[in-house]
């Protein structure tokens, strides 16, 4: 399917169509320092317009729900953080009940990772509360950093019982509960009466969401980032867009079309 055909499908019946997005690398351009990640100028307004017209809008991210509340506060959008472990409702973060019991293990994992990675150049720890992530995008030798991080993360996973979730220049440890972007898609959709769903994502963590929307008769849309994008991500999508700017452009056109 081409981007224009996708636009046409999405514009057909907005009130019975759901738009579900990953955040980083999908709505927000990839940045060297993940703490500075943000929506491009004006896209928040476009998303708000679309949320008002479409049957469902959800943003499903590996980031904490509180982060999404700051960076992607789109009126009318459902915000699911930590791959669906958290939901932001009325300004409050609601964790999935099954995950709360793992808070102490996540803290312990954070301490052990911080000890093990102290002084490792370009490698940094992100404490997300219920989970902890290690990033090495800025490491001088990414391959060597990946090997060191994976070894340590495997050890900490074994000792804390947390589950490993690998991503693009990131390894994450999180509660071993049945929760990924696929279950998050189903939670966001709930019993909404929708004829079409589209999920937009750019990374391996989005693969379960692509599978879930396909199960539900919807479309997977990959946002490609050149050679950085895993082949399986492109292969699992119905449409591939060329970067976050192409998605922003498609959303602007879609908003004009349905408004
Ligand atoms: Mg992403």
List the helices and strands and how they pair.
Layout: H1 3-12, E1 17-21, H2 43-53, E2 56-60, H3 65-71, E3 78-81, E4 86-89, E5 92-95, H4 97-100, H5 103-117, E6 124-127, E7 132-135, H6 142-160, E8 163-167, E9 170-174, H7 181-189, E10 196-201, H8 207-215, E11 219-224, H9 231-235, E12 239-242, H10 243-258
Parallel strand pairs: 1-2, 1-10, 2-3, 10-11, 11-12
Antiparallel strand pairs: 3-4, 4-5, 6-7, 7-9, 8-9
Bound molecules: magnesium ion (MG).
Number of helices: 10
Helix proportion = 40-55%
- The side-by-side strand order for the widest beta sheet comes to 5-4-3-2-1-10-11-12
Mean pLDDT: 96
Instruction: List segments where confidence is low: pLDDT < 50 over at least 5 consecutive residues.
Output: none
The radius of gyration is: 18 Å
- Major sheet summary line: 8 strands, mixed
Number of structural domains: 2
Please tell me what the overall shape is: globular
Would you count the extended β strands for me? 12
What is the annotated CATH architecture of the largest domain? 3-Layer(aba) Sandwich
């Amino acid at each position: 399917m081409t981007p224009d055909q996708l636009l046409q499908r999405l514009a057909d019946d907005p009130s019975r169509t759901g738009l579900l997005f990953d955040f980083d690398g999908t709505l927000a351009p990839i940045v060297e320092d993940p703490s500075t990640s943000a929506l491009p100028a004006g896209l928040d307004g476009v998303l708000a317009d679309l949320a008002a017209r479409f049957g469902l809008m959800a943003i499903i991210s590996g980031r904490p729900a509180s982060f999404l509340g700051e960076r992607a506060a789109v009126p009318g959008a459902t915000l699911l953080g930590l791959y669906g472990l958290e939901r932001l409702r009325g300004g409050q973060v609601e964790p999935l009940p099954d995950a709360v019991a793992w808070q102490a293990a996540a803290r312990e994992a954070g301490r052990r990772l911080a000890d093990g990675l102290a002084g490792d150049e370009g490698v940094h720890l992100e404490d997300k509360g219920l989970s902890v992530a290690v990033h090495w995008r800025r490491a001088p030798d990414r391959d060597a950093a990946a090997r060191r991080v994976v070894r340590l993360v495997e050890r900490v996973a074994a000792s804390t019982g947390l589950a490993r979730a690998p991503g693009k220049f990131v390894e994450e440890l999180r509660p071993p509960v049945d929760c990924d972007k696929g279950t998050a898609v189903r939670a966001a959709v709930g019993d909404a009466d929708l004829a079409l769903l589209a999920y937009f994502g750019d990374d391996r963590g989005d693969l379960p969401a692509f599978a879930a929307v396909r199960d539900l008769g919807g479309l997977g849309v990959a946002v490609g980032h050149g050679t950085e994008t895993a082949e399986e991500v492109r292969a699992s999508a119905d449409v591939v867009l060329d970067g976050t700017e192409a998605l922003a452009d498609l959303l602007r056109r879609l908003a004009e079309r349905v408004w």
